[in-house]
Each structure stands twice: as C-alpha cells, then as structure tokens.
Amino acid sequence: MPDHVHTSAEDEHDSAYAGLLVNDAHWAFGTDFEDPLAGVDTTIPEGIDAPTLAAYALMLGDDSLVMSHRIAEWTSNAPDLEDDIALSNIALDLLGQSRLLLARAAKADDSVVPALPEGSPAPPEDALAFFREAHEFRNVRFAEVVNGDFAEATVRVLLFSVWRLAVWERLRASTDHVLSAVAVKGVKELTYHRDYAARWFVTLAQGTEESRSRLLAALDELWPLWPELFDTHPVEAAAAASGVGVDPATVREAAEAVLDQVLTAADVPRPEVARRSGVLGRTGRDGMHGEALSRMLAEMQSVARAHPRGQW
Amino acid sequence: MTLTETPLDAGTQADLESHFEATIARNDRIEPRDWMPDGYRRTLVRQIAQHAHSEIIGMQPEGNWISRAPSLRRKAILLAKVQDEAGHGLYLYSAAETLGVSRLELTEMLISGRQKYSSIFNYPTLSYADVGSIGWLVDGAAICNQVPLCRTSFGPYGRAMIRVCKEESFHQRQGYELLTTMMRGTDEQRAMVQESVDRFWWPALMMFGPPDADSPNTAQSMAWGIKRNTNDELRQKFVDMSVPQAEALGVTLPDPDLAWNDERAHYDFGQPDWDEFMQGVKGNGPCNAQRLAHRRRAHEDGAWVRAAATAFATKEATA
Amino acid sequence: MSNLSAEGGHGAVPLAGVPTGVDVPAPEPEWPLYEVFVRGKRGLNHVHVGSLHAADDRMALLHARDVYTRRNEGVSIWVVRADAITASSPDEKDPMFAPSGDKVYRHPTFYDIPDNVPHI
C-alpha cells in the first residue's frame, strides 16, 4: 500500500509531539471551562475575613484583566509573528489569572457581584468583568494606560511583571488555598513574562539609536505610575495582616533590585520623573482611574451588556 | 561549490526528472534538498506562501472581536485561536522558505498586493456570531482543503499541514459550540446566528475555488501530488458535511437549490456569485483595502524593532 | 472565467501569474533562521518540529517555547541556527551537483527524521 509512507510519517509526527499535544494545556484553561475553581478547596480558612479576601482578590484580578486586555490589543499588530504569538501568550496567562481571581472573589463574598437582570446565565466572574462600572474596578492605573509602540509594550510588561512577581512570590504562602494555588501557577508565568520583557528591554536599549530613544521615552512615560504599585491600600494591609495577601510596600526593595539589574544590563539610568498624583488622594485601588479605563470597558463590555440574558 | 556552475548535460537533466517523477509516482515525499522541476517549485511557493498569507490576514476578522468577547471564557478561546493562526502562518512561511524565498520578501509581496490571500477574509465580521460562523463554516471549509494537503507531495508542506490540522479541528468545534450555545439563548441571539450564517455560507463555498472546468491549474497540481482533490470534489464534501450540522444547529442554509439527490447520493446545491469572488481576488472586496493597510502598518511599525534586534545581535556576536 | 483560476490552501487563491519571490534577496536584513528540536517528554529523543526566525540564540529559545510548546512544563528544547547544520540528504541520489546546489533553499528546514529510528 503506497500510503504507508504517509501513515508512518504521521506516526513519527505524533511521537514528536508526545506529551505536547496530548492535552489541551495550551487552551488557557484546558477545554473544560465550566467552573474555573472546579476541584479547588474554596472553603475560607479560619480567621479570615471574607469581604477582605474578596476585595483583595478583586484587586489582583482586575490588574491582570485590564493588563491582559491591553496586551491582547497587540494581536496581529506585533513587529513579527514570533512576538505576536509571545504577546498573546502573556495576555492569555493574565486572563487566566483573572478568571480564577474574580471567581475567587465572588465565591468568598457574593455581595461583590453586581446584580444582573433576572434570567441572566452569566457566571459570577463574568458578571464582575462585564457588568461593573469603571469606578468599581480596583486595578492599579498602570495597567489601563493606552498602548503605545513596542518599546512601550516592553516597558509595560517588564515593570508590571517585576512588580507582580515580587508580590506573588510571597502570595504563594497565602493562607487562602485558592490564592496560594493561583500564585504558584502564576509565578511561573510571570517569570517568563519578565524574562521576555527584560530581554527586549536590553535589546532595544542597546540596539539602534532609534530603539534606545523610543525605549527611554516609554520608560519616562510609564515611570510616574510605578510608585503607585507599591502603595498600601487598607484592603491590602488587612489582607496582609490576616495572612491572605501581601502588602506591596514590603516587596518594593526586592522589585527595585530586580529592575536595577535590568537597567544596569541595558545601561539605562533610572528615570527622574515624579510620580503621578491621584484625585483627592485617590488612585486605582480606590476606584479612581484615568480616562482610558471607562473607554476600554465601554468596548470590552459592549456585547455582554447588549445581551444580559444571552448565553455564550 | 564551484561545481554547481557546470552546465548539466541533457542526460543528467533527464535522470533528475525521471527520478523526481518516480518519487511522485511512488507517492513518496519530495524534500527540500531534492532536485525538482522549476514549475513544481514555483507552484508550491505560490500555494504555500498564499496559504500562509491567508492565515495571517485571517487573524484580523476574528481579532476584531477579541476586545469585545462577551465572557472571559470566550475571550480566552478567541485569543488562543487567533494566536494559533499566527502560528499556522509561521509554520507555512517556514515551509515556503525551504523553497528558496525569504519570509520578508513574501510579506512585501503580500502588502504590495502582488501575492494574494483567501478572499474569505475580505468579508467583514459584523457580530459576535461571526466568530462562530467563521469557526464552523470557514474553518470547516479550510479543513476540507487542508486534510488532503497533509499528504501533499512536498514534505515540509505536508508536515506543516499535519500540525495545522490538529489545531484547526479545535477551531471548528469551538465555532460550532459557540453557535449552539447562542441558539439556546435569546431570540435576538438566534436571529444573530441565522444572519451570520446567511452572510458566510456562500463565501465559504467560494473558498474551494472556481468550478473545475475553470481551474486549469488543477490537473498539473494533481499530477505533481501537490493537490489531492479537485475544487468541486472538496466543495461537495463540505456541503454534504454541513447540511446535517445546520439541521442540528437549527439554522437554514440560504440556498433554495439545496436538496438531497438520491441518484448521486450527494446534496445538490447552487453556485456562489463568482463575479463577487473575482472582485475580491482583484482587490475590490469589502475589506481588501482595510486588511492590507492593517498588515502593512503592523509590518512597517515593526521595522525599527526588527532592525534593533539585528543590530543588538551583531554587537553581541562581535563583543 | 479562466483568469479566476484559484486553488485551495486555507481558501482559494490565484496561482497563475503570481510572482514567487524565489531567489529574491530579503528586502531588509533578515533575522537568521533557527531549527527547533523538542523533547516532548523524558525518555524520548529531541525531534525536529519546525523553524523560526530570531535575532540571536536566546531569543530563538524564547520564541521556540512560545511557538512550538506553548511553554509546556518539562519540555526540553534545542535551537540551532540553520546555517550551522551540515546535512546530507536521506536520499542517496541527492544531486549535490544539480543546478541549484548552492541555493538557500537547501537549508535543512524540516530535515527529516527517518521513520525507523527508535526512541533510544
């Protein structure tokens, strides 16, 4: 049978992918999407204040939801195919983190979930993502900034992942099983994001005159929002005190040290730009955002809100 | 390799040709280092490169809805799917590169309009149901085209297609699953699905190319084992496969001539508007200009990044 | 309607009269081509899975993880510049002296692993 050649070629192909394509691991959540927390112990440990846990999980979930949305906007727009794929991977990782965190928030305290019209089948994590107003989002303002060029994407991913990784390395020890499990998985993902961005940071800094000047401009643009990442919101203080969460102020030194390594390798000085103030002292964690977020949400939520009883 | 400058005598040329023909006749694969007729090489480059372009341009119509996906689950599925298309484009460009073309040159030919891509992507996506219709009908049609290509005579193309087909079957399933979920939803959603299927059915049939009588290249491509089935055979297969799926879904396919033919044991069906297809091929489709402008902008905006990486690598190598 | 001639792939595209770009130099300096080898799980050989472009080795590894493994845990990846591979054809009749012997398409992308190589 002349077809034997092709059959064996396919077998050989299969062996090349043994352990790679046998599962659906690359589909962000596998292919069973029904309950993001299926199989995870969601009971709230003794001594933990449920509303604090929910509010804290929302903050972390909103950070990655908004950041993921921005990075996903790069899809089909990256400088080359390889980086298009890399950026999509980063967006997918962050989206996966959000889904778990929003589901965790809803499970811990369902009063955070907005009321939907009767008959709406939207699961709680979708109600949180698609039916809250901008002022109810608790993400840091850094995540919502409108995209710029590829240098801006590089700086954005680098700063965000250096910060989040520093927090999440400690979050692995959370007394909440869910947050701890999410952090264990997330640390691997964030380490990759950081390495990817650090690599590009050095490359652009040392590449051409144009790439260096674009990189420095992007750094100056995002730097004013960097200190806000380490502010301690009362929810974060309470979450840290009860062992559920991490006070970001306590990881500042570690994060700065990592960032300094990258800056040194790239021969880029720390920017001398002042931090951006809030509104009446309030910033992203307080639900006080820039103009970009409501615009982003108007787009992101448009289909879900047009069909509040829709099945997706 | 100065010996390569030596002109071949007629005998050697004939040997090479007969060796090539014998490999094809054995249903064996041609590999990049094998001698191959120039026409074979060029036909392959045209087909593989334009297949790759189709994957890359194909990211746009669906990418149009990533930012508006109505649930976190749908957003992840769609993002992963569009990402896969970039991967498929990359595998295919790699296969084309084994034939002596550079990916950057192919990209230039795409954005200058000298090479084409599948006209299906010149249709707009107008509702979220289109994400489902593209998965079900467009990816379904693509699978009909692509599965036989896993056995194409050129090794790298066939191997790229094996990997593509594995992922593509997930794409079709997610599209169909989105539509079935929407059909269980509200009246508005059901209407949205029907309207979307009405718009994509005919363009999906066009994806197989014009009728065999109007496809003079098919015979040579089949003789070379590049192509394994004719346009009409594949179109028939797609229609036969889709009709029961449409019934299960609860939508009506917009073709009054669609009917089971007992004698042929196949469905009879009408012909799409080939004039509209030709307009798309000529660049006059609803989204041709937009798709190319998007690709051109992304490529040009990325030039400084690519140059920076090249410059950095050079510095590193000499440091 | 013969000028409509089109053949499938993802969808029908015209083939007649379309330029190929064969042997046309890249319009800007192109990142070198890398071949990617993956060991999907312990106990198996690294197997060629495809190729990609990258400016340097480190970037090639990062890209290979993204493109070919989706960063699956426990996967070992090799990347090697295509122009660093010395190859013979699996076919003894490989015409080393054929007209196109020095052409770039002789790079060993998708270099074939013989079917009968056991997983040692």
TrEMBL record, chain A:
Parts forming coiled coils: none
Record GO biological process: phenylacetate catabolic process
Highest taxon, organism lineage: Bacteria
Region forming the signal peptide: none
Pfam families recorded: PaaA_PaaC (PF05138)
SUPFAM superfamilies listed in its UniProt record: Ferritin-like (SSF47240)
Positions of transmembrane segments: none
Cellular component terms per the entry's GO annotation: cytosol
Classification via InterPro entries: Aromatic_CoA_ox/epox, Ferritin-like, Ferritin-like_SF, PaaA_PaaC, PaaC
Name of this protein: Phenylacetate-CoA oxygenase subunit PaaI
Organism field: Nocardioides alpinus
Origin organism lineage: Bacteria, Bacillati, Actinomycetota, Actinomycetes, Propionibacteriales
Automatic annotation (TrEMBL), chain B:
NCBIfam families, sorted: PA_CoA_Oxy1
Any GO BP: phenylacetate catabolic process
Pfam family, one: PaaA_PaaC
UniProt-recorded name of the protein: 1,2-phenylacetyl-CoA epoxidase subunit A
An MF annotation (GO) of this entry: phenylacetyl-CoA 1,2-epoxidase activity
GO CC terms of this entry: cytosol
From TrEMBL, chain C:
Highest taxon listed in the record's lineage: Bacteria
Gene3D superfamilies in the cross-refs: Phenylacetic acid degradation B
Pfam families (alphabetical): PaaB
Protein name (Swiss-Prot/TrEMBL): 1,2-phenylacetyl-CoA epoxidase subunit B
Record lineage: Bacteria, Bacillati, Actinomycetota, Actinomycetes, Propionibacteriales
